[in-house]
Design goal:
Layout: E1 12-17, E2 26-31, E3 59-65, E4 68-69, E5 75-78, E6 87-93, E7 101-112, E8 121-127, E9 138-141, E10 143-148, E11 158-166, E12 172-182, H1 187-196, H2 199-202, H3 206-214, E13 230-231, E14 238-239, E15 257-258, E16 262-263, E17 268-269, H4 271-275, H5 282-289, H6 292-295, H7 297-323, E18 334-337, E19 340-343, E20 368-370, H8 371-381, E21 386-389, E22 395-397, H9 407-412
Parallel strand pairs: 5-12, 19-20
Antiparallel strand pairs: 1-2, 3-4, 3-6, 6-10, 7-8, 7-9, 7-11, 11-12, 13-14, 15-16, 16-17, 18-19, 21-22
Helix pairs in contact: 7-8
Length: about 425
């Protein structure tokens, strides 16, 4: 540019003037021979802020996690509290954009291939949603609109997709995909939660059962979610990474699944209910429909304590009552399971205290438990522990289940 002629280059201009004082007036001409000083730097530093993009004829979608803008395919997390991630959606419509109004919503989807098709997960939810009385879409007009996603008290994870629709809601104009995963609480937090709720006072074994069910022995976390440090064996062993939704052991942060339909810390399993929907209560159907217990560890424990465990305790009470029908008192009996000794002594479980008069012994330390407790523990895993009582009060015990596994022994070996 400096080598090109400018308007005044090579031009000649007349001029007239005089010096201050009594100097005479002089005339002459000014000839422009150059356009200015030519600068030929050795190098140019072009680093700097780019020119602002003209946005008047466009619309823009931005997604923020904890007030930090994220890129597509990012991971966000349900906290260990647990709390859903703080997601903010920002949409800008320029004043010259052909779309004067748009519609948008957040879709969450968790697909999982389980042990059988009946137990597969295919959970799809929308935020906002007309199904709970809200609007089907958020509305945005020309200018900038921000929306903090309201998850309506639901806990959802998997794949999340922001959908931007035209005003008529006939087509999706653009999408933004990211992933929601979960963070595990520490075992100390879970144990304190159970203590504060009064669960451990009534049922001493539930924390040990949770450790066993979730595979959390020997680590610092309680595994509501898969969280392996390494996966694979031999040459294929490598550090675990966050992966896409689905049955993939490298998908850190997706719910902890166990055969055939178990989920989370307590491995909540609705196998029986899903196979017998005609006799399943409306309350249980609603829990199955709303998978909070998969993504929220407190909800997971609540289902165990308010639904699953009471069912097993009721079954155990009825079973024990039938066995004691023709007996006045049990004969003294004890058996070791791991580090615990089960005896014919009264139980600390409130529902079992009605049978105290049948039990001749007493517990002398915290490692001595009632033989009736062993019945509940095994029944929760599958099968009866006390399988018979003779007229003279002699117990018949079946320690192992149909898979030749001794669940009571496993629980008895847990020292945490």
């Amino acid at each position: 540019m400096q080598d090109n002629f400018v308007l005044l280059k090579k031009s000649i201009l007349p001029r007239t003037g005089k010096m201050p004082g009594n100097a005479p007036t002089e005339s002459g001409k000014i000839e422009f021979v150059d356009s200015g000083q030519i600068n030929a730097p050795e190098e140019l530093n072009v680093t700097g802020k780019p020119l602002p993009e003209i946005l008047d004829d466009k619309y823009l979608l931005s997604v923020y996690y904890n007030d930090t803008k994220i890129e597509s395919e990012s991971f966000v997390f349900i906290s260990s509290v647990p709390e859903m991630p703080k997601i903010r959606i920002e949409i800008y419509i320029g004043k010259e954009c052909k779309y004067k109004s748009l519609r948008f919503r957040l879709k969450t989807e968790f697909k999982f291939k389980a042990s059988a098709s009946l137990y597969d997960r295919n959970d799809v939810d929308y935020f906002p949603s007309k199904y709970d009385g809200g609007n089907a879409f958020m509305i945005v007009n020309v200018g900038k609109t921000n929306w903090n996603v309201d998850f309506r008290g639901l806990y959802r994870g998997g794949t999340a997709v922001m959908e931007v629709w035209n005003e008529e809601k006939t087509s999706i104009l653009s999408t933004f995909k990211f992933y929601i995963r979960g963070k595990n609480p520490t075992k100390e937090i879970v144990k304190k939660y159970m203590q504060d709720k009064g669960y451990l006072t009534k049922y001493w074994f539930v924390y040990k059962m949770a450790l066993s069910e979730s595979g959390s022995e020997g680590i610092s976390l309680m595994k509501q979610f898969w969280d392996p440090e390494f996966v694979g064996k031999g040459k294929n062993r490598k550090e675990a990474i966050y992966g896409p939704s689905g049955r993939n052991y490298e998908s850190k942060g997706i719910p902890n699944y166990g055969y055939p339909d178990g989920w989370g810390i307590c491995q909540i399993d609705f196998k029986y209910e899903k196979n017998n929907l005609n006799t399943t209560t409306a309350e249980v159907k609603e829990i199955i429909k709303n998978p909070n217990y998969i993504w929220n560890w407190k909800e997971n424990i609540a289902v165990k304590m308010n639904l699953k465990l009471p069912e097993k305790i009721t079954a155990a009470v009825n079973h024990i009552r039938r066995l004691l029908k023709n007996t006045k008192q049990l004969k003294s009996y004890s058996i070791e399971e791991g580090n615990l000794t089960y005896k014919t002594c009264p139980s600390s479980v409130p529902e079992l205290q009605q049978f105290s008069g049948f039990l001749p012994d007493t517990s002398t330390n915290q490692n001595e438990k009632s033989i009736l407790d062993a019945e509940i523990i095994k029944l929760y895993n599958g099968g009866h522990y006390i399988v018979g009582i003779s007229k003279d009060g002699t117990l018949s015990i079946e320690r192992k289940n149909s898979l030749n596994f001794n669940y009571n022994e496993r629980i008895g070996k847990i020292n945490e």
